[in-house]
Amino acid sequence: MELNQNELNSIKELIENSNKILIIPHKSPDGDTMGSALGLYQLFKNLGKEPEVRCFDPPPLVFSFMPNVEQVKVDLEDLDYDSIFIVDAGASHLTGFNESYPELFDKSLNVVNIDHHGSNDFFGKYNLVVTDSASATAIVYEMILQLGLEIDRHIATCLLTGIYTDTGSFMHSNTTAEVMKISARLLAKGANLRSISKDIFNTTKVSTMRLWGRVMKNAYQTSDQVTMSIVTNKDFEDTGADYSEMTGAVDYVNAVPSAKYSVILTERGDKVKGSLRTLRDEVDVAEIAAAYGGGGHTKAAGFTIPGKLEKEIRWKVVDK
Ligand SMILES: [Mn+2]
Question: In angstroms, what CA-CA distances link 243 with 120, 200, 285?
Fold first, then answer.
């Protein structure tokens, strides 16, 4: 992986001169942003520094196996830090802190932006943005390697978690030879793959099963080969599931072999969230999401628009 050497040299100097370091994952944290944040947390701890991870939302319970996850604090009290690392955030608003702390994004502070989304606008004073990286943790891995710093088993577990989740357990098309190479090295460093796969992919709450039941019951295919499903506010109420339990459902729906792409529309209060996936090389779902003000990757993207879901019924006359 190619990292910008100027940026890397600046970041090296910044780390050396920093003691209090703030790390910010994106809101509604996933495995990649938590893995990047907690991997950096352990790295800075090992270097004798005082890191803190502060996130807009609490980490979901599935990440309980991750080292130091109990150290993650919710909300932000001030910006009194020597440097600030923002990880896996494709845009400033995804941190959740853009309105309360706009100075995070005006380049007046020592903000390091580590990300792999095509939508990233280089909001940091320093930017390690590699859009063809499978995960943000893979960039963190490369950064640590090129800075000549040590990866212990805790860091290895965190970084492998990001790769594992952002490649859909090595099943998505971003699973390249480089991804496998980095993963092998992280395993050699003692990464706990057993916990990652068991806790994230083989642990399902009853509420999640019931919610996914609704997703599958509501699934249909449109005449132009799009697999769709919907989840309403009532589905969340009835099943007792929360929004984070939708994670992975769209990948499941995307399994229909003839589908061009898949969409799940989810009511979240007075907004509707769309999640898109495709397995087709010629389909760019980020482009489709952008038409609704969203974004993401070519094979996985999403959007949020105000509104509610309403059922549309069509009737037609057929020969008997
Ligand atoms: Mn990511």
Answer: 25, 16, 22
